[in-house]
Amino acid sequence: MVSKADRDPRHHTQKMQMRLQEMVDHLRGDIGKVEEPQLRAMFETAAEVLIGLRKAFSDYEQKNEMAWR
Prior knowledge:
The model has no long low-confidence stretch (mean pLDDT 91). The chain contains three helices and no strands. The chain is mainly alpha-helical. The chain has one domain.
């Protein structure tokens, strides 16, 4: 049986936002650990993409965009 919390979209959007932020933090933390410029750029690019995805989840949750209304 599915719990009430599992049926709440905010429960899922908040969990995804947390996980995405954890990955952003990990990528940005690793930038200082590697010396190859291309890998550093890839880590930063990946972090920026994940930030955009996290914002999309937030916009859905807050109904900020026309598509989510």
